[in-house]
Amino acid sequence: MLCHDDQSNIVPVEHRKVTYRLYPSKTQAAALLHLLRLHQQLYNAALDQRITAWRRRRVSLSYADQCRELTDLRRECPEFATANCSSQQRTLRRLDIAFQAFFRRVKERGERAGFPRFKSLHAFPGFGFKSHGDGWRFVPGADGKHGKLRLQGVGVVKARGQARTGGTIKACEVLHRDGVWSLSLTVECQPIRAGGIAACGLDWGVSDFATLALTDGTHRSIANPRLGQQAERGIRIAARAVARKKRGSNNRRKAARHLRRLRQRLANRRRDFAHQRSAELAGRFALIATEELNVKNMTATACGTADAPGRNVRAKAGLNREILDTAPAAFLALLRYKATEAGSEIVEVPTRTLKPSQRCPACLRVEKKTLSQRMHCCPCGHVEPRDAASGRVALNWVLGQMQSGREPTLRERAGVAPPAHETPSIPQDWMG
Ligand SMILES: [Zn+2]
C-alpha cells in the first residue's frame, strides 16, 4: 500500500514494532501471571493434542481445527473463558507457526530439525492481541511519550517508552521475562528519517567492525566494541555456578536467573550498538556500497573432514566467534530498513566477480592477499589500509555503474559524482 505524504513523495506504509516497559501494580502483576499461565497451558495442551492426533490417527491438526476446539474448551472450562478469545487464537497460531517452521526445517535439513517443545511458565514468552480495542487498548501519553495499557481482566497498566514514528496501533504482544513485563506494539506508520547526501563504500571487518571508504579519498573506521568478548568471562563463571548447584534447588534457580540476566544484558548492548551505528550511517549517506554479506559462508568451520582435515581450525573458530560477536547480518537488516526510511540506498556489489578485497581501487589489478596483510600496496603506487581499499573498490564500482547508466534506480539527489581521477573506467568484462 502506498500513500502520499506532504511533499507528495511516495512513502510506503510499513509495520513497526515499538517496545514499552510495563509497570503493573502487585495485583495487576498477579493477574498478568494468571493470564500467562492460561496461555501457557493452552499452548502445551494444543501441542499435546497435535502429537496425540498424529500418533494415534496419523492426522495433522490444523490451526482451524484447534480454533474450533478452543470454542468447546471455553464452554467446558469457564476458567479459560476468562481470557480473551482472539488472544487465545493468537497463541494457537503461534504453535501453528512453530509447526510450519519445523516442517520447513525437516525439508531443508532432514532429521536434525528440532520439534516444537512444551514450555515451562518461565520460558513462555507472553501472549498477543489482534485488533485494537478487542480486550485491550493502548492510550499514548501526551506528546506521544509513555502511555497506558488497558487490559481485559487486568486493569490499566502504566507503560514507559516512546515511538519514533506515530501511526495506527494494530496489534500487541504482552511479554514476560524474569519478572519484567513489557509491551510490544505493532504500529502501521509511514516512517521517514532525515537522510544524508554522501556516498561511501563499506567493508565489514573483524579488528574494526566496519571501514568506510569516502569519496574524498579518506576513510573512517567503526571500532569493534567486542561486547561478547567483554561479557564472556562473566557468563562462563555464571554458567559454571549454575552447573554446580543441585537441580531443583533454590540456589540453582537464583544462579540461573543471574545467568539469564547476563545474557540478556549482552543481547541488549549488541542491539543498542547496532541501532545506533546503523542510524548514524543511514542519516549520513545517501549511497552505501557494500559486499554481499554471506555470514554462513564467512563463518563456515575450517574443520574439514576426517579424510581431508582443514588447516588453522582453531584460528578460524576464533575468527568465527569474533565475526558472530559483531552480528553483521542483524546489523545489515537494521541498516537496510533505516536506509529505506531515509530514502537512501544500499547497493551490494557482486563479490565473486569483483573481488573487492583483492582488487586495487586505483588500477583494478587483482592480487591475492593473505588475511594477515593489513595494507594494500599496489605496484601502481596506490597504498591504503586493506579494508579501506576493499570498500573503495565497491564504492567505485557502484559509482561507475551509475555513470554508465546501468543502474537507473539510484537517486539523483545522492549528488555523489566523484572527482574524475577517483573513478577508474570499468572494463566490460568485470561482471565475468
Ligand atoms: Zn594499483
Explained architecture:
The protein is an alpha+beta fold and 432 residues long. It folds into 2 domains: 15-189, no CATH class; 198-226 and 274-304 and 327-431, Nucleotidyltransferase, domain 5, CATH 3.30.420. It is 42% helix and 22% strand. The strands form 4 sheets. The protein has a 7-stranded antiparallel β-sheet with strand order 4-8-9-3-7-6-5. Strand 5 and strand 6 form a beta hairpin. The longest helix is centred in the middle third of the chain and has 35 residues, at 250-284. The protein is globular and about 80 Å long. Bound molecules: zinc ion. The site of zinc ion has 7 residues, from loops.
In short:
The protein has 432 residues and is α+β, with helices and mostly antiparallel strands.
